[in-house]
Amino acid sequence: METELNFSSKLENLVVIERLIDDLCLQYNFSSEVYGNILVTMVEAVNNAILHGNKCNSNKNVHIKYCVKNQYITFVVEDEGPGFNFENIPDPTLPENLEKPNGRGLFLMKHLVDDIKFLKNGAEVELKFKIA
Fold first, then answer.
1. Residue 3 forms beta bridges with which residues?
2. Which domains does the chain have, with CATH numbers?
3. Which residue, among 120, 122, 130, has the nearest Cα to 85 in the 3D structure?
4. In contact, 79 and 123? CB cutoff 8 Å
5. pTM, rounded to two decimals
């Protein structure tokens, strides 16, 4: 069964995601590693949706969908922005990028999930985690 959650693009709404992940952890008994991976990735995805996708416009919403199926939990995070070129993000670990303020979040997300897909020109990201 898919569950949906929507909220306005305010950074204080990151607590909504933190609570959701805590509740899901209790419900599905995630290991501490899985819990940490999901929490960091989802906070980063929602933060990106608020800051970069919706440009902190509180009249725009962040849309979350999630579903648990076959030992996986899949989240979809969508903003109401135009998207971005997700194939052209510089590697933040390269020396020339170490001082740049952007790019680390996507790098982290890609390394903490079991599968990641960017859809709708990057305005939507699908994140899949093995939970069992």
1. 66
2. 3-130 (3.30.565.10)
3. 122
4. yes
5. 0.92
